[in-house]
């Protein structure tokens, strides 16, 4: 008898996370979906729509990420973890945990959540899917001495650097755990027409306001891309450790994205600042 997969989707209260949940429920109705969102009412509404349990966590607070992990560890297995929550913000802004907000929400919080769930993920031979962005190519200018982008801050640069780190995280996890059954991938869902960027006054925010739905991909299409990686088979539909564009093909990356020494350094330093071990 085939056991249904358990798929945990963060950032599921709206946008592509909610769209992916709807897509998976419609096409694979036996899947055990578990939704995570920041807004209780919106997350509950989506969860009710797709008949799934939900959890609430604000990734700008790492104590809430730790509480979320404790709740998710009650699951018997996690076959797929979607690190989909994220956003672009004005700043630099320091969180209650002492980190730059964009860096924490897009990179540190997913890193911490994955670490805290690592044994369940390994036991389940799971896939970890990170929602990245073409901003990792267009806007990133990573300075190893200032990984959080406190200096020379712009919303776009900080977001691009955080999404570059998302790509690095996929590679670092692959290098360390793929031989133990863990598969990882990062992808660009498309430039999606959602409320993304609402908390920023940067270029992307103005572009969204000016263009609206006219120049951007509907959330449903981005959700289809997310659902594709969540339900796809590593080694068949996508290769572990790689970054894909919105056409589900290997994406263009900066040279730094393949710098193994830099990838390992950032991975190790992140574990140190978060006080975790792998």
UniProtKB/TrEMBL annotation:
Domain Ketoreductase: start-end pairs: 5-195
PROSITE patterns: ADH_SHORT
InterPro entries: KR_dom, NAD(P)-bd_dom_sf, Sc_DH/Rdtase_CS, SDR_fam
Keyword entries, A-Z: Oxidoreductase
Pfam annotation, one family: adh_short
Homology family: Belongs to the short-chain dehydrogenases/reductases (SDR) family.
UniProt-listed PANTHER family: PHOSPHATIDYLINOSITOL-GLYCAN BIOSYNTHESIS CLASS F PROTEIN, PHOSPHATIDYLINOSITOL-GLYCAN BIOSYNTHESIS CLASS F PROTEIN-RELATED
Protein's recorded name: SDR family NAD(P)-dependent oxidoreductase
Source species of the chain: Corynebacterium suedekumii
């Amino acid at each position: 008898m085939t056991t249904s997969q358990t798929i945990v989707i963060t950032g599921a209260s709206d946008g592509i996370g909610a769209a992916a949940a709807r897509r998976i429920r419609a096409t694979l109705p036996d899947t055990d979906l578990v939704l995570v969102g920041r807004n209780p009412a919106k997350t509950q509404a989506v969860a009710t729509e797709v008949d799934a349990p939900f959890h609430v966590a604000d990734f700008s607070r790492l104590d809430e990420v730790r509480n979320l992990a404790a709740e998710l560890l009650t699951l018997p297995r996690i076959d797929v973890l979607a690190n989909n929550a994220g956003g672009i913000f004005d700043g630099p802004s320091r969180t209650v945990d002492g980190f730059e907000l964009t860096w924490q929400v897009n990179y540190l919080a997913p890193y911490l959540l994955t670490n805290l769930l690592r044994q369940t993920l390994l036991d389940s031979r799971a896939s970890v899917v990170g929602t990245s962005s073409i901003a990792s190519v267009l806007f990133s200018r990573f300075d190893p001495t200032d990984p959080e982008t406190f200096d020379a801050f712009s919303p776009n640069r900080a977001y691009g650097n955080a999404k570059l780190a998302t790509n690095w995280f996929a590679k670092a996890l692959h290098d360390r755990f793929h031989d133990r059954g863990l598969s990882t991938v990062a992808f660009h869902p498309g430039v999606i027409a959602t409320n993304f960027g609402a908390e920023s006054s940067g270029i992307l925010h103005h572009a969204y306001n000016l263009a609206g739905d006219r120049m951007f991909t509907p959330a449903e299409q981005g959700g289809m891309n997310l659902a594709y990686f969540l339900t796809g088979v590593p080694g068949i539909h996508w290769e572990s450790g790689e970054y894909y564009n919105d056409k589900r093909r290997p994406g263009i990356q900066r040279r730094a994205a393949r710098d193994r020494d830099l990838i390992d350094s950032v991975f190790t330093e992140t574990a140190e600042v978060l006080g975790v071990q792998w």
